[in-house]
Amino acid sequence: MSTPRAPSSSSDSASRTGETADIPLGFGGVSAAPGDHIAHFYRGNAQRFSVLGPYIETGLRRGERCVFISAPDVAEELRSWLEAQGRDVQAAEESGQLVLDPGRATPEDMRALAAEVEASAQNDGPKAVRWSGDAGWALAADITVHDMLHWEALYDKCSNENWQMLALCQFDQSQFSGDVLMDALRSHPYCVMGQVVVPNPFHMSPEALMEELAAKENGASS
Q1: Distance, CA of 200 to CA of 185 (rounded, Å)
Q2: Which of 35, 204, 207, 219 is the most buried (most CB within 10 A)?
Q3: How confident is the model at residue 21 (pLDDT cuts 50, 70, 90)?
């Protein structure tokens, strides 16, 4: 994704994966390409579900696998939202098309989970996989905010290398400090602005960001 995308645009260029940005995100008439890693910073449930809800519902409607990492209460709210749209959430979960997961305790365990989803998706065929997460899962699980940020940078690195999942990562601005939100922003090449997706000028290479995060942690512990 190099520019905000809209369906049927004749100017769509190839992404870094060689694929065109032809996967509809479900909101704002915007499309993305396999491997795109997108951040959304929001306040309140209305903003959260204005993006997350259509993103997941569109994936289910298109027969794509949808994975959502979140605290259990947020997962339950998503179930309710999808059911209100007429989706058979129980059937989607039982078939494995919809995966609601509370996350893992370390960045390495999160990478193992994502790698398993990525590998199974490649075996299943050409349909896209939608990875998504609400960063509040780190507050509800046994993982530090630093490790959550390290995981975001690690995901970005894997996405740059070979992962083809489309990823939407959400951050509640009321739950995190400005420094944490800035580091989260720098780990994503794209971000949601209103109802469009734009290139992120603050994006850092994952290697540089991981070095900076490690230096911050070492400085805090010294």
Answers
A1: 8
A2: 35
A3: low
Residues 56, 130: contact at Cβ < 8 Å? Answer: yes
Amino acid at 13: S
Cα dihedral across residues 93, 110, 117, 196: positive or negative: positive
Q: What is the pLDDT of residues 183-220, one digit of tens each?
A: 999 999 999 999 999 999 999 999 999 999 999 888 76
Contact criterion met (CB below 8 Å) for 93 and 99:
yes
Distances (CA, A) of 59 to 11, 24, 65: 24, 9, 7
* Alpha-carbon separation of residue 3 from 30, 33, 69, 107, 108 (angstroms): 10, 11, 27, 30, 32
> What are the structure tokens assigned to 176, written together?
């995190």
- Using CA atoms, how far residue 213 sits from 57, 73, 208, 210, in Å, is 34, 29, 9, 5
Helices (H), 67-198: 72-84, 89-95, 107-124, 137-140, 145-161, 178-186
Predicted confidence (pLDDT) at residue 221 exceeds the cutoff of 70: no
For residue 93 the two structure tokens come to: 């979960």
Whether 37 has a pLDDT exceeding 90, the answer reads: yes
23-221 CATH fold: Rossmann fold (3.40.50)
Average pLDDT over residues 138-159: 93
Q: Return the structure tokens found at 78.
A: 């998503």
Pairing state of beta strands 37-42 and 31-32? Answer: unpaired
Helix (H) or strand (E) holding 55: helix 44-61
pLDDT over 70 at 13, yes or no: no
